[in-house]
Amino acid sequence: MFIVFIFGFCSDCVLFLFLLYSENFQGIFCPRLIHVSILFFKPDVPGKPGTPEIADVTSTSLTIKWKPPDTDGGSPITNYVVEQSERFSPRWNKISSDNLTECEFTIKNLPEGQTYQFRVSAQNKAGVGKPSAATEPKGVASKYTCFWM
What we know:
The chain has about 150 residues and is an all-beta fold. The protein is built from no helices and 14 strands.
């Protein structure tokens, strides 16, 4: 007698089948299903991405880069949400599209003399996770000079 263990995956579950076969000198006899288990799991939201770093600055734009979160919550990351806040403002405004999958984003059309902070959240099938720590306040002064506030 022996047991064959069969499993399969679907998007939100794992299927386990246990088949019992009996065997003697005449051969193997028909399998008998002894147990079926379907385990469903619900993914969690992703963890926090790494703190964004300012990578490239021009007179009206800047590029931020970040590291992906340590955990994807059990579901692949489908989008990163980039938010911007003016210096000392508690309000954060989404500035990215809904299909940002790279860990880099360029913010364009920034007026000179304004100071901003940026943060990033990861999104998967379960929703949007907690945001990263914000960048230091950053201003764009001119094409060749940027300043920290």
